[in-house]
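Reopening this one. Same input as before:
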Amino acid sequence: MPKIVDHEERRRRLVDAVWALTVRGGIEQVTLRKVAEQAGVSMGQVQHYYSSMQALVRDALDRAVRAVNANIEKAVEAAGATTPEAVLRACLHALISPDEESMRLMRFSLAAAGRAVSDPTMARVLAPGDDELLSFTSGLITAARQERGVEPREDARMDADISWALATSLGVDVALGYRSPETAARVLSHHIDQILGVLGSGGHEATA
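Same output, byte for byte:
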C-alpha cells in the first residue's frame, strides 16, 4: 500500500525551520540548505515545495500572519469573552501574551520587518491591522461604549487603529524583554479604559 504523504505537514515543518533560523540568526542568514538541515530533510524535498528562498520566506510570513490571527481567536475563546468589551480586551491582550509560541512569532515578525525597506510586504505581520480588522474593532469599541452608556463619538475607527498599534508595540517590547508582560498588560488596560471612558469608575484588571 503506497505511503500517504502529508504535504501540508511537510510545508509546516519547513516553515517552522524558517521561523527558528530567523529568530536565531536573522532572516538574511536563512538559506534553503540551512532550512533543510534544520528540518532534517533533503535539499530536494525543500525545492520540491519551494522553488526559491523568496517563495519559502513569503509562505513563512503568510503563515505567521495567520498564526497571529489564530492566537487572537484562541485568546477570545479561552477568556470566554461574550460582551463587546470582553472581546476587545481579549483580542488586544493576545498580542502581549508571554507564551513561548507567541513570543517566537513576534520575534520572527521583527526579523522579517527588518527587510521592509527593500520588500514592504515583509512588514505586514507587524502592521496595526487591515481594513476589515479595524472595522471589526471599531464596532467593538462603539458597542462597548453603548453598553456603558458612554456618549456616542466619531473616533472609534481611529481608536481601533491606535489600539492595535499600541498592542503591537507592547508585544514587541515583551518579546525583546524591554517590558514584563504584566507591565505591558497594565499599559494596554489603561488605554482601553481611556477609549471606553471608564477611567475614574474603577477600571478593569489587566487581562493576562
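So the earlier flakiness isn't reproducible anymore. For the record, The radius of gyration is 20 Å.
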